[in-house]
Structure formats: structure tokens, C-alpha cells
Design brief:
This protein is an alpha+beta fold. The chain has 4 domains: 2-108, Beta-Lactamase; 127-274, GAF domain (Beta-Lactamase); 289-452, GAF domain (Beta-Lactamase, 2-Layer Sandwich), CATH 3.30.450; 456-608, 2-Layer Sandwich (Alpha-Beta Plaits). It contains 20 helices and 25 strands. The strands form 5 sheets. A 6-stranded antiparallel beta sheet has the order 3-2-1-6-5-4, sandwiched between helices. The chain has a 6-stranded antiparallel beta sheet with strand order 9-8-7-12-11-10, with helices on both faces. The longest helix is centred in the first third of the chain and has 39 residues, at 88-126. The radius of gyration is 37 Å and the shape is elongated.
């Protein structure tokens, strides 16, 4: 009498009476046939059975192989051999015995599953962190199933990172855990993409397999999605395995599926807790750190805690336009000169002003929208394609940050690999950051009002000469670094002295305010107008060559020429200079533009380049 369990294409002897000299037999014999067909096989005369495998030193005439089942799945074979035939009633009795054993195996499997799930739930309830919960769950499952190791992977943008592992000792595998799994490499990514569990005892044949595991000869793995409420894909994947080949019986499959459901609930609780703790730390940091230093910190925490995010940016409302104040995964220095008007930002948001003022997040997916084309409508394509990597964005989550009737900022979170990266769980997580961001931005705005007073012309509301000097130096550095053109216009008003002398200084002030309004109204996205003082103004044109600057300058001149006060009409003389052909330093470019402005005045022309 022997009990045989499947192993490596054959069967391993689990127990026998009396002991026999075979520890393993191929799956081609009577035992293998009974296992494959899932029914008893009786051979009255083994001498007539070509596939018979004889036990050493035993005289045998008949063989009866009875498959044993666990929850409907064949898990072993009870094999009986003797030197005389089995009587029909003996065969019937032994079949009933095998059925009774199968019922007991199913009952034991059920009890084992309940015990493991109870231990798992207790461990999750005790855990204080995600890592602690994951480590405890892996230790329990690996030990209970007699496996060698396991890892709980968490999707973080373009990589899966190991939240925890158990039983991994080889140096090459430890490196894999440290570096994470690149997008598309490993069974875990297949499970992420399909949402279905995967079991194999032939890992070497898997095209998505990890090279380090194949090199070490690992054969058996189970990879299962851990459910995430509201997520289009599972955010975490459980992987268990061992070197030797082994089957995955139904009882173990059912156990692991139940364990993943339990694990998902426990991890969801701890995920929410970690998110609350991160937001609370941000509020505490408001009291200790400079506000500008918190912009990148808020963004980094948001990318870390919003499922599906791997990159992002924060645009803050300053001076009536939105500017990049933090970026992760993008070139912030290349984006700092880009500004978005209110309408341009609403175009990117795409849900309208009312929803923006309610702080409703929205998701764009490359599977449904041409994200790059939308981005190109809001800013210069060459900047958005390089520093902004807009062509690489597969999914974008945009969160408006409203406060007292205006949107103070937009938080953009991006995934560069998966169009389905963001789901309801992402939207819920993103909303956690609205309150700290609104508080941060309100405090920042209060402080900046004092600074802006020193950089703003009180009459026109335009940035003043001091602000111009700072901005021009910053824009010139960016143009030098990235090799794009930069133009400068110096503008002197015609007719202003006559308005001042004949109509008085009050009307003269009105004229200057009207000119400022015209400059703001006519400016293109990205143009930066300034008042130098008196009747002189300046405009910086980032990413603009000479031809584009000439067109813009004529547009400004034409609009100013329409301003008349009691029959006295204004005009403009504009001198242009362009980097790099007209100069490479602020002084060289200012001198060139100023000289041309005076030449335009002398020649009686509006624009001279």
C-alpha cells in the first residue's frame, strides 16, 4: 500500500507499507493514469499491463490505483498491489474508503483555510504599517503552504517596488527586490494588466519571466492580484514560489484567492492611515518650513500616495497667470518660464469653471484623448514636448485647488506608461491634498503680496523695472541652456507728453493705465509686459525669434494707436532685440533694443528690429 503525490512530471512516495525501494515513479504508469483520468484503475494481471511499474523485491499480480480528492481536485493516489486478484466487493469497499479519505482531506483543507485566514486577519489588525502587514502575511502564507519565498509588489509608476518579501536570500534576487520590476517585466505585471491570477510550474517557459529567477532554475510560482476598491487595476500583486516543480491544487488556489481578498481589506485600511499621516505631516511642516520649500514636498507626497501617479507638477496662480512651482519627473527649470492664462488652464482641465471651483478632479487617458494636442493648445509645443514630456503622458489626473471663489492652483499627476493608471481610488486619494494645498497657497499668497508690492508698479499694476531685471535674467539663462530664442521689446509712448501737458497728470495717469490694459489684453500666452517708469514699457517674449517678436510688436503698436484722449491719440516706438543674434548678455540686448527704440523714434516708425 502506498500513497503517491505529484512531483516533477511523476509522483513522489509520501508513505508506504511495507517500505519499498522506490521514492519516485514516472507519470506513465497506472498511478499516473488514475491521477490524470480522475477515476480508479484496476489491473487484475499486471503481467498484461505494458505501463506497469514493478516495486523492487515484491511479487505482485494485481494493482488498484485510487485517486484521492481535495475539494474536487485530485491531489494524490492511493495505490494497492498484491500477489492475487482483488475481489469485486474488495474493489468496491476500497473505492468507498478512498471517497471517505477524500471527504476528510476536503474537510481538513477547509479547516486549514479558515485557520490561515483567521491568523491573517488577526495579523493585519495588529499591524501598524503597510510594510509590517505585508511581511506578516508573506511569512504566514509561505510557511503554511510549504513554499520557499514570496514578495508583495506595489505598483509605483513605471516600476513595481517590493513592499515586503520573505525567504529571498540569493544576491541576484535581492538586487531585483532593491531595483524593482520595470514596466512589463515579470508575472506580476501580467497580473496587473489582466487582473487575473496566474499559476505555473514551468516558469522557464514564460516570456515575461524575470531573468534572475530563470537563471536560478525556479519553476513554480503563483501571482495573484490583491483587490483595490475603486481601482481599474490591482495596485498590489502577491507572488509566491519555489524552485521545485509542484502543482497548484484547487484548495490552495481557493485559499490564496481568499487570502488576497482579506489582505486587500487590511492593506486598504493601512493605506488610508498612511495617507492621513502624510497629510498631517504637511500641515505641521507649514509651521516650520519656508512655503516655497513645501511645494515640491506636497507634490512628492501626492505622487507617492495617489495610486497610479509616477510624475507630476504643481501650477500656482501668480499675477493672474499659472506658473510651474514644482515638478517631479519633468524639467522644472525648463518649465518655469511657461505661463498659462485662466482660460488656457481651464482648457487643459476640460471640465469647466464651475467644477474647477468645486475642486473636482478629472482624469485624461491616452486611450480616449489626444493628451499632447490638448497640451499644445495651452503652451508652446516645443517646450511641452521637451521639458513637459507631454507626448509621453498616458494618463493625467488634474486636481483644481479652489479657495474663496478662485482656483489658486492645479495639481497634475501623471502616468507615462499606462492609460488606465487612474481610477476612483486615485480621485479619492487626490482629494486628500486639496485642503493642505489650499492652506499652503493662501499663506503663500499673503506673504507674496508684500513682495509683489515691491515688484509691482502701483499705477498700472504691471511688474516694475526691478521685476523686469529679475525676470529677464531668468529667461535669458533658460534660453542659453535650452537653445531657444528670446526677444525683448523696449516701448516708448508717442503723444503722452501732450496728454500730460494739455489734459493734466490725472488724465496722463489714465492713459498709462489704458496702455497697461492694452498690453495685458494683446499679449500672447507667455509674453511678459513691464512698466519701466515714465512713459516707457518693456515686453519679454520667451521662445520667440525676431519674426515672431516683430509681429507681436506691431500688434501692440496698433492697439496703442487706438487710444485717444480728447483728440490726442497715443502711439508707440518699439525697439526689438533677439537672443542670440543681437547679444548674449542682458546689457547687450537691452542696449540693442534701447538704441533701436530711439532710432524708430527718429525715423517716425512704430517698430524697428
Amino acid at each position: 500500500v502506498g500513497v503517491w503525490v505529484p512531483q516533477g512530471g511523476g509522483f513522489r512516495r509520501l508513505a508506504s507499507r511495507p517500505p519499498i525501494g522506490l521514492d519516485w515513479i514516472p507519470g506513465t504508469g497506472v498511478v499516473g493514469r488514475a491521477f490524470r483520468e480522475g477515476r480508479p484503475i484496476y489491473i487484475p494481471d499486471v503481467r498484461k499491463e505494458p505501463a506497469y511499474i514493478a516495486p523492487p523485491g515484491q511479487e505482485v499480480l494485481s494493482e488498484l490505483a485510487l485517486p484521492l480528492f481535495e475539494q474536487g481536485d485530485a491531489v494524490a493516489v492511493l495505490n494497492l498491489e498484491r500477489p492475487k486478484p482483488f475481489l469485486p466487493e474488495e474493489v468496491a469497499g476500497l473505492r468507498r474508503f478512498a471517497q471517505a479519505v477524500s471527504l476528510q482531506l476536503s474537510r481538513l483543507a477547509d479547516l486549514k483555510e479558515r485557520r490561515i485566514l483567521a491568523e491573517l486577519a488577526e495579523g493585519l489588525a495588529r499591524a501598524e504599517t503597510l510594510e509590517e502587514a505585508a511581511e506578516g502575511a508573506l511569512a504566514l502564507l509561505v510557511t503554511s503552504l510549504g513554499l520557499e519565498s514570496g514578495t508583495l509588489w506595489e505598483v509605483r509608476g513605471a516600476r513595481m517596488q517590493a513592499l515586503a518579501s520573505h525567504g529571498v536570500r540569493e544576491a541576484s534576487l535581492l538586487r531585483v527586490l532593491e531595483e524593482g520590476l520595470p514596466f512589463g517585466v515579470g508575472l506580476a505585471w501580467r497580473v496587473y494588466e489582466t487582473g487575473s491570477p496566474f499559476f505555473t510550474a514551468h516558469y522557464a517557459e514564460e516570456s515575461q519571466g524575470v531573468a534572475a529567477l530563470k537563471a536560478l532554475g525556479w519553476r513554480t510560482f503563483a501571482a495573484l492580484p490583491i483587490p483595490s476598491q475603486g481601482a481599474p487595476r490591482s495596485r498590489r500583486v502577491l507572488v509566491l514560489g519555489q524552485r521545485e516543480e509542484r502543482p497548484w491544487p484547487k484548495a490552495e488556489v481557493d485559499l490564496l484567492l481568499s487570502a488576497c481578498r482579506t489582505l486587500g481589506l487590511g492593506l486598504e485600511r493601512l493605506t488610508g492611515r498612511a495617507r492621513h499621516q502624510a497629510v498631517n505631516r504637511l500641515f505641521l511642516d507649514l509651521l516650520e518650513k519656508p512655503l516655497e520649500a513645501l511645494y515640491p514636498e506636497v507634490l512628492e507626497v501626492a505622487v507617492r500616495h495617489v495610486p497610479g501617479a509616477e510624475a507630476g507638477s504643481l501650477l500656482v496662480l501668480e499675477g493672474g497667470v499659472y506658473r510651474f512651482r514644482a515638478a517631479l519627473g519633468y524639467d522644472l527649470e525648463g518649465l518655469e518660464g511657461v505661463t498659462f492664462g485662466l482660460e488656457a488652464q481651464l482648457l487643459w482641465y476640460g471640465r469647466g469653471k464651475e467644477e474647477a471651483l468645486r475642486g473636482e478632479p478629472r482624469v485624461l487617458s491616452a486611450a480616449e484623448h489626444l493628451i499632447a494636442e490638448i497640451g499644445h493648445q495651452t503652451a508652446l509645443p516645443e517646450v511641452m514636448d521637451t521639458a513637459g514630456r507631454v507626448r509621453e503622458i498616458q494618463a493625467n489626473l488634474c486636481l483644481p485647488i479652489p479657495y474663496k471663489g478662485e482656483v489658486l492652483a492645479y495639481l497634475n499627476l501623471d502616468n507615462l506608461h499606462d492609460p488606465q493608471a487612474f481610477g476612483e481610488d486615485s480621485l479619492e486619494a487626490a482629494r486628500f491634498f486639496a485642503a493642505p494645498l489650499a492652506t499652503l497657497l493662501h499663506e503663500s499668497r499673503t506673504r507674496k503680496l508684500l513682495l509683489e508690492a515691491a515688484l509691482t508698479d502701483p499705477l498700472t499694476g504691471l511688474p516694475n523695472r526691478r521685476a523686469f531685471e529679475q525676470a529677464f535674467l531668468e529667461e535669458l539663462k533658460r534660453a542659453e541652456r535650452y537653445g531657444y530664442p528670446l526677444s525683448l521689446a523696449v516701448l516708448d509712448l508717442k503723444g503722452f507728453k501732450a496728454v500730460n501737458d494739455r489734459l493734466g497728470h490725472a488724465v496722463g495717469d489714465q492713459a498709462l493705465m489704458k496702455v497697461a490694459e492694452v498690453l495685458e489684453k494683446e499679449r500672447r500666452n507667455g509674453d511678459r509686459p513691464f512698466r519701466w517708469g515714465g512713459d516707457e514699457f518693456a515686453v519679454i517674449f520667451p521662445h520667440t525669434g525676431k519674426e515672431g517678436a516683430i509681429k507681436a510688436a506691431f500688434r501692440y503698436a496698433k492697439a496703442i494707436a487706438k487710444l485717444c484722449f480728447d483728440g490726442i491719440c497715443l502711439g508707440a516706438n518699439i525697439g526689438l532685440a533677439t537672443f542670440p543674434e543681437d547679444g548674449k548678455t542682458p546689457d547687450e540686448l537691452l542696449s540693442a533694443a534701447d538704441t533701436r527704440m530711439y532710432q524708430a523714434k527718429a525715423q517716425g516708425v512704430a517698430v524697428l528690429a
